[in-house]
Write a structure and sequence with these properties.
Ubiquitin-like (UB roll), about 325 residues, Elongation Factor Tu (Ef-tu), domain 3, alpha/beta, five-stranded mixed beta sheet, metal-binding, globular, iron, 3 domains, 2Fe-2S, Rossmann fold, oxidoreductase, single chain, about 20% helix
């Protein structure tokens, strides 16, 4: 995809307008993400998932919104180098996070850059004329950290059944919005009919854990609580001194390595120094998907692979632990 434009949302968040390099269409649903692959600061290829923040009603362009993370491998590099005219590799869109019924009632909960899928949902509703019934609560550190603040206000004016609440945990004296942190008491006050709503939540792991617990306490069943996160910290693994080892073989390259039964195939490949394309490492994005030609695995994924693909023999190495020796079509 080619970058057409880039602009600052806040002091550490930047948005990038992208379009297929061949001028073709890009179709996606609000809440979906793309995986991009670009050279990192050291020249090595790095892959990351970014939720599309633009309206899904468009067919020619899409926008990603990237928060620069302290010590992050890619985010700061993108801020500095992804400029108009730059071409990057992109895969997808992927993911199943988003509204499932247009006539349902929703609570959209986000913190930090977790606002991006919610922006796509609301922008899409405006563009398609959907009367979205939603309370949209977004948390940020200060008022200066609220992504797309002016756009949020404009969107609220165009959707009569949308109520947007912004919360600043460290607001200054002039802030007239909500203050502090969102907890069960705040949710009960801000959303009296919460138990009747489907909750969509996106943000840092700690925020989502707290919101999940609060929603459950206020009567929202797990079946109506959905969340998404791209917190790609390194996975710490313990390799047992004993236990079974299974041989993983890449049929095309001829590479092979041993995988302890308690590790995923992706974890074992990294320990063996064998690169495998991956991004979320949680079974969400589908980047690592490949065909298994022999063997059996225990796969617990997060929606990054379809049932029909599993039936054809595809697996997600990031979510698959071997039960026998495995051969992959790689």
């Amino acid at each position: 995809m080619r970058c057409l434009a880039a602009w600052d949302e806040t002091h550490d968040v930047r948005s990038f307008l992208l379009a297929p390099e061949d001028g073709g269409r890009i179709a996606y649903s609000p809440g979906q993400f793309i995986t991009i692959r670009v050279p990192g600061p050291d020249g090595e290829l790095v892959e990351r998932c970014y939720t599309l923040s633009s309206s899904a009603a468009g067919e020619r362009t899409a926008t990603i919104t990237v928060k620069r993370k302290e010590g992050g491998v890619l985010s700061g590099h993108l801020h500095a180098t992804l400029t108009p005219g730059t071409v990057i590799e992109a895969f997808g869109p992927s993911g199943q996070f988003g509204p499932t019924k247009a006539d349902d009632k929703y609570l959209l909960l986000s913190a930090g850059s977790g606002v991006t899928p919610m922006l796509s949902m609301v922008r899409t509703a405006v563009d398609l004329g959907i009367d979205l019934d939603a309370v949209f609560i977004h948390a940020a550190r200060t008022e200066a950290d609220i992504i797309a603040a002016h756009d949020l206000a404009a969107l609220a004016r165009r959707l009569p059944n949308l109520r947007i609440v912004t919360v600043a945990s460290r607001a200054n004296g002039a802030w007239d919005g909500e203050r502090g942190r969102i907890d069960a008491h705040a949710l009960a006050r801000l959303v009296p009919d919460l138990a009747q709503r489907t909750v969509l939540c996106c943000g840092p792991e700690g925020f989502m854990k707290a919101m999940h617990e609060a929603a459950l306490a206020l009567g929202v069943p797990d079946s109506r609580y959905l969340e998404e996160s791209f917190d790609f910290g390194e996975v710490d693994v313990d390799v047992p001194a004993d236990g079974r080892l299974f041989r993983i073989t890449f049929a095309r390259s001829g590479k092979s390595f041993d995988c302890p039964e308690n590790l995923t195939i992706l974890q074992a490949a990294k320990l063996a120094g064998i690169p495998m394309a991956s991004s979320c490492a949680k079974g969400v994005c589908g980047t690592c998907k490949c065909l298994k030609t022999s063997g059996s695995v225990d796969m617990n994924h997060g929606g990054g692979i379809r049932d029909r693909e599993v039936a054809r023999g595809f697996i997600l190495p990031c979510s698959s632990r071997p039960q026998t020796d495995i051969v992959l079509d790689r």
